[in-house]
């Protein structure tokens, strides 16, 4: 605890008297204009420990006793009085805009600051990187200014308030709820605090107020500078000028520009404007594949030639345009393989470090993503630096989402200034980044005059980039008179997108701003979606929702966030004992939207989910195809990149044979330009019995900024030899001889010393999030598929054969099930099964067998798709081969326990441990899962810390398994991946060693 100097009275404070939290027309007071001049280098960081009090409302006076808080940070992650709360669409309180609740948590941060003595005579600026949602600033009790917009920096000139060489007290008051909260309703945790760094910096009174860079792919460069001074009346001194340097190339002020301004009477006494222009010969262009950057330095000189101010920029030469229905980068139609990304960390909320940001982007790059939408606000400035360096196309999105009251606010003139202010400040900050190729007016805020006003300002200020906004284009993708240059729907069925592209009515590119909702075990049909995109001119991709599972690390014993003390207490997507990933409702809030916050392609600790491997293969820069027949077959390599050849890649061949072999041989990638293809030398293949799969394992040939040499890039695969048609699971000789029948009980259930539960018919899975929100889980429960009643109809024993007929009674009719157990001479048991589903069971989760082993089995080896999880409609990223893993590693720890850990296309598998082996050979590629939990175990709990693993293994062998789809928010799986009624047959052998 800490006691500062006596508090100043709030009743007479003009910032408090203004009540800015209840005035949407007021977006700032005393705040400096935004600019693209980056002052982070050389600034003095004020990050660290600040005195802190959390008040019940902004009108309350701070008391004498203070705690400590770490800035940047969110108080919800350490202050028990105001825990985190998650809502998706609904505001967390009932007041209509622009009102906010009277109980309005208000954080007061305070610390002493001492500006260096050598800053005397300089202009001193305080920068607060981000504050949620209203920021009030005081220095030594005197009001400095206020700001709204929770995701952009606010700067204040404190020259007259801070005495260099002497201490000053800076107070930051953050009001959590405000009129602005209604336009920050963004499907994320509600957290209050100062979430980005606080800086103090100094400049000469004569300074660069803004720098605008336009660098084209033909090498043309234009640098526009705005100059101001804070000395005296603000009149600029005579004789100032600018110069610059681009990678050693000198740049001089454009006198022709000066002359035209003078002739047009556009010369100001208090606002200086200057321009530098040149053409760079043999320019290296920037793209997401080839992120070539140049160092630009801009200098402002006094009349005597001394440098008053300097601005450094990393720039890229590139063009972006919409031509007809194509989005072009450097004249090329590029695919947008994007993801939506929030700023998030499981310990610090929206406070993310440079290392966090770099790790995010490196992960995305390694899994084939080339684009980021900054949902739903401008990201931390460092993200754009990294996107420039590593190579990402960025849709920069303004901090506007009024989801709960969208159409009311879109045309509300009280919010007009806020819309224009948020869009313009984003553009002014980020306009020089080559990675930013599209501006977005916000998200899910309907469409109204406020959007048109913001778009009008934007197009005037920056005509070099297209503008998008889903709300403008959602009613008519083919319209030409709204604020969006791109049709950017969300969660549109791919069939509708294809139909629009083929309709003859398409007028602009169609790039989904959100698609393939990644909640839980999801992202089914992603490969089918991309096959349609690549086959249909006019479709160019989209942005998966989303990057993160927003699970906050929570202590189980007291329900509080672990905060920074939780560092290192999680690994591989799993929280340490005593901790869990929290989602909506876990902090005691009654109004919440549950696990809808856990909808990312990575877990809260950035561990990739299985869908990441699916995406990596879909987005692969290299693909394989087989051409010809028989001995005339050839392999063709396709370069699917837009700008880069294959010289940055290395490869080797890997063979996987059904009869038990895996081997590798060297491969030499041919010289193939972007978009081209070539025949690759065919390796020699040792052909035994059964199928053989050929995989080209592609890696980085040298170090890349995002990956060291040898990093996996993609694994394109083709089947070189197919298995014989109708190959049986047993041969004719296997049934010859006299062997006793398999042991079954009176109900016809198989009894085996290594089975803790006999093989029975299974029609249900622990509902995925898609199953729950899509309505399937409720239907399955109504049918009783989670608790069916089994009736034995007959048990017939004849020699080595036991034939069992039974039925499963459901709410939609009886399922007839027949199992035939045959003892084979080599000790195996052949199991042949038939299930007949009545017509009323139109869409079940699975049809197959479930059994449980005794304890001790801890490892699985299988031949099929892997090594990671795969399902019928999400299997492209899992190559066929021989795989093995610990049983406990097969389970995928989605935040809400559900069906997971399946492997698609399995031909045979072996469980081993405790001196035993249990082998199963299937009649064809089937869906198999092996883990420690029954489906009922998973469905009964909300978090993983509640699960109790069983000693044995729960094994599912599915003749048919329903696809995953994305029905939690978007289309369900395709009809071809549904499990229909009718007859299902499958067979398998069981062998114990």
TrEMBL record:
Keyword presence, Phosphoprotein? no
Q: Which EC number(s) does UniProt give? A: 3.2.1.23
Q: Which InterPro entries match?
A: B-gal_small/dom_5, Bact_Beta-galactosidase, Beta-gal/glucu_dom_sf, Gal_mutarotase_sf_dom, Galactose-bd-like_sf, GH, GH-type_carb-bd, Glyco_hydro_2
Beta galactosidase small chain/ domain location is 738-991
What GO MF terms are annotated?
hydrolase activity
In the record, the note on similarity to other proteins reads:
Belongs to the glycosyl hydrolase 2 family.
What is the protein name for this chain? Beta-galactosidase
Please report the organism this UniProt entry assigns to the protein.
Streptomyces ossamyceticus
Please spell out the taxonomic lineage of the organism that makes this protein: Bacteria, Bacillati, Actinomycetota, Actinomycetes, Kitasatosporales
């Amino acid at each position: 605890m800490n006691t500062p100097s006596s508090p100043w009275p709030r009743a007479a404070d003009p910032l408090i008297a203004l009540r800015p939290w209840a005035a949407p027309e007021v977006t700032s007071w005393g705040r400096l204009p935004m600019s693209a001049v980056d002052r982070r280098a050389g600034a003095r960081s004020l990050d660290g420990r600040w005195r802190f009090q959390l008040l019940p409302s902004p009108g309350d006076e701070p008391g004498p006793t203070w705690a400590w808080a770490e800035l940047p940070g969110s108080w919800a992650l350490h202050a028990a009085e105001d825990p985190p709360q998650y809502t998706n669409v609904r505001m967390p309180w009932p007041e209509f805009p622009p009102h906010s609740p009277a109980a309005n948590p208000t954080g007061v941060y305070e610390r002493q600051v001492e500006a260096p003595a050598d800053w005397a005579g300089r202009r001193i600026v305080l920068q607060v990187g981000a504050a949620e949602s209203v920021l009030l600033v005081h220095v030594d009790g005197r009001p400095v200014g206020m700001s709204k917009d929770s995701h952009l920096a606010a700067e204040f000139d404190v020259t007259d308030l801070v005495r260099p060489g002497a201490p000053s007290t800076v107070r930051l008051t953050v009001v959590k709820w405000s009129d602005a909260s209604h336009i920050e309703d963004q499907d994320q945790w509600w957290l209050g605090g100062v979430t980005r760094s606080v800086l103090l910096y100094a400049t000469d009174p004569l300074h660069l107020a803004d720098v605008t860079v336009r660098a084209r792919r033909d090498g043309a460069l234009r640098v526009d500078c705005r100059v101001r001074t804070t000395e005296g009346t603000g009149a600029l001194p005579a004789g100032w000028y600018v110069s610059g340097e681009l990678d050693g190339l000198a740049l001089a002020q454009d006198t022709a520009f000066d002359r035209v301004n003078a002739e047009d009477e556009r010369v100001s006494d208090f606002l200086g404007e200057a321009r530098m222009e040149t053409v760079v010969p043999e320019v290296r262009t920037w793209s997401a594949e080839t992120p070539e950057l140049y160092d630009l330095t801009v200098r402002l000189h006094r009349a005597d030639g001394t440098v008053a101010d300097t601005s450094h920029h990393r720039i890229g030469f590139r063009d972006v345009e919409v031509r007809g229905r194509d989005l072009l980068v450097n004249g090329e139609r590029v695919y947008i393989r994007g993801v939506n990304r929030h700023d998030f960390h499981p310990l610090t909320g929206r406070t993310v470090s440079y290392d966090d940001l770099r790790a995010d982007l490196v992960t995305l790059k390694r899994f084939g993503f080339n684009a980021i939408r900054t949902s739903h606000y401008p990201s931390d400035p460092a993200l754009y630096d990294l996107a420039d360096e590593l190579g990402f196309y960025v849709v920069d999105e303004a901090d506007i989402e009024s989801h709960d009251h969208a159409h009311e606010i879109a045309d509300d003139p009280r919010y007009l200034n806020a819309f224009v202010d948020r869009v313009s400040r984003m553009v002014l900050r980020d306009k020089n980044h080559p990675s930013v190729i599209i501006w977005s007016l916000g998200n899910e805020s309907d469409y109204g005059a406020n959007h048109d006003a913001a778009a009008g300002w934007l197009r005037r200020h920056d005509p070099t980039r297209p503008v998008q906004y889903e709300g403008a284009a959602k009613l008519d993708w083919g319209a030409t008179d709204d604020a969006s240059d791109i049709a950017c729907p969300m969660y549109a069925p791919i069939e509708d997108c294809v139909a629009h592209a083929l309709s003859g009515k398409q007028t602009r590119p169609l790039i989904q701003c959100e698609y393939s909702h990644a909640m839980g075990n999801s992202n089914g049909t992603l490969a089918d979606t991309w096959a349609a995109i690549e086959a249909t001119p006019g479709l160019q991709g989209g942005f998966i929702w989303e990057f993160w599972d927003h699970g906050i690390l929570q202590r189980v014993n007291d329900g509080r966030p672990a905060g920074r003390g939780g560092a290192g207490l999680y690994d591989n997507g799993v929280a340490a004992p005593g901790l869990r990933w929290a989602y909506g409702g876990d902090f005691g809030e009654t109004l919440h939207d549950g696990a809808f916050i856990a909808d990312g392609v990575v877990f809260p600790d950035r561990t990739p989910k299985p869908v990441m491997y699916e995406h990596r293969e879909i987005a692969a820069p290299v693909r394989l195809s087989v051409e010809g027949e028989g001995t005339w077959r050839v392999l063709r390599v396709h370069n699917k990149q837009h700008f880069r050849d294959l010289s940055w890649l290395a490869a080797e061949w890997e063979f996987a044979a059904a009869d038990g072999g895996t081997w590798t041989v060297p491969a030499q990638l041919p010289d193939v330009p972007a978009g081209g293809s070539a025949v690759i030398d065919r390796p020699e293949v040792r052909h035994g019995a059964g199928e053989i799969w050929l995989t080209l394992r592609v890696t980085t040939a040298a170090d890349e900024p995002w990956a060291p040499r040898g990093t996996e890039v993609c694994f394109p695969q083709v089947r070189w030899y197919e298995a014989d048609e109708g190959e049986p699971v047993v041969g004719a000789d296997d049934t010859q001889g006299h062997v006793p029948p398999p042991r079954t009980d009176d109900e016809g259930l198989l009894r085996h010393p290594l089975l803790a539960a006999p093989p029975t018919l299974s029609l249900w899975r622990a509902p995925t999030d898609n199953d729950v929100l899509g309505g399937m889980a409720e239907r399955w429960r109504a049918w009783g598929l989670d608790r069916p009643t089994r009736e034995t109809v007959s048990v017939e024993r004849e020699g080595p054969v036991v034939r069992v007929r039974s039925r499963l009674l459901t709410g939609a009719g009886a399922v007839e099930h027949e199992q035939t157990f045959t003892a084979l001479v080599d000790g195996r048991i052949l199991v042949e099964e038939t299930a007949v589903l009545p017509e009323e069971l139109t869409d079940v989760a699975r049809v197959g067998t479930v059994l449980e082993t005794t304890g001790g089995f801890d490892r699985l080896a299988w031949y099929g798709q892997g090594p990671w999880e795969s399902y019928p409609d999400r299997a492209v990223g899992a190559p066929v081969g021989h795989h093995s893993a610990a049983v406990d590693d097969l389970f995928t720890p989605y935040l809400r326990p559900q069906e997971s850990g399946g492997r698609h296309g399995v031909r045979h598998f072996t469980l081993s441990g405790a001196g035993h082996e249990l082998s199963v050979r299937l009649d064809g590629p089937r869906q198999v899962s092996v883990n420690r939990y029954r489906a009922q175990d998973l469905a009964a709990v909300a978090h993983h810390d509640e699960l109790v693993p069983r000693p044995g293994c729960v094994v599912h062998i599915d003749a048919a398994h329903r696809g995953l789809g994305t029905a939690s928010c978007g289309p369900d799986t395709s009809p071809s991946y549904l499990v229909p009624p009718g007859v299902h047959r499958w067979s398998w052998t069981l062998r114990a060693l």
